[in-house]
């Protein structure tokens, strides 16, 4: 049996975990295959998450939130979604909770918070964050979308690509240049909503994995954005991105370890059932050694992830630490899912087997939220300081 001693979570967290587990078993897992075919989760699932109090739990009561300032609950939601193997939901829901919501909560004007946060809590409003453009991914300073001050509003033009939750999104945090001459200091963040004239979307991309995720392009053609939809101060967008990306990278790392554990658990069951040469696959020394290697590294990864959750709860995880977490845990996920496919033989390559999906879904984890090469840049910058 694969099990890890855990000290970070208390009784109240475990009760929350059980309610999430029950919810996932009832409302997520049975629908995941259908969502993969549709290239998106259902809108209804967002509403159900909201009805059960699983969205934006940090939000203050004045917006209808639970005001729970304990990151361990966020981590449990990510972990349980990951363990369920439903990777689309494991990425899309936390992106709303732990990545987009903080931008609006931390930097939004009173008007923007009042307009968007109640709907984000209830699941009526689905959110996304749009930084990447066709010509600018790793090199964010090279974005070309512009926001021009027109006195009583900003006029936004440009396009974004690869946007998670993009097709369903009602609310999108968008990075645009407010002063193209200033490089990073010329970037600002805005909240756009899908009803704004000139805002349109592409169809969801055909991706290698994460099939239940509605990743798409967004287009802005003379979109009039009210002044109160500017996040924070003009020209400080890049700074805000660098601050908030630490939690995004930690979340990707937490999803990675849970998705890896999910692939490993299904493989543990499979190798004991499957027979070859008159014995179980698990009787071969190679299989036993592979399982031991994976079990040991997953235990190490899980303890590391738990420690990061505790540290982040105390606001002690900096950019380099979050980058290390994203880098190490996503590399672990990719290695584990590849080994798990091998232990399944040909069945591991069949989409109906969870391990085939785990393999396809894992790959992108090393690419988004900053590629692992960019993570190494951020890690070494701190080392050489
Ligand atoms: C499924 C999916 C979902 C996504 N969701 C979102 C989202 O919700 N919002 C959003 O804004 N973006 C999103 N992205 C975009 C993602 O963050 C970018 O794809 C990523 O940052 C890499 O940018 P790029 O694709 O332009 O690659 P490039 O930047 O062109 O990189 C190509 C290669 O060059 C390497 N490279 C680049 N610069 C350096 C360097 N300085 N040193 C060493 N190597 C370097 C990279 O590591 C990579 O291997 C998503 C992408 C995918 C695939």
TrEMBL record:
Protein name, entry field: Acyl-CoA dehydrogenase, short-chain specific
SUPFAM superfamilies to which the protein is assigned, alphabetical: Acyl-CoA dehydrogenase C-terminal domain-like, Acyl-CoA dehydrogenase NM domain-like
Record-level Gene Ontology MF annotations: flavin adenine dinucleotide binding; short-chain fatty acyl-CoA dehydrogenase activity
Record PANTHER family: ACYL-COA DEHYDROGENASE, ISOVALERYL-COA DEHYDROGENASE, MITOCHONDRIAL-RELATED
Organism: Cecembia lonarensis (strain CCUG 58316 / KCTC 22772 / LW9)
Record has Plastid as a keyword: no
Cofactor(s) this protein requires: FAD
Entry similarity comment: Belongs to the acyl-CoA dehydrogenase family.
Domain Acyl-CoA oxidase/dehydrogenase middle: 128-223
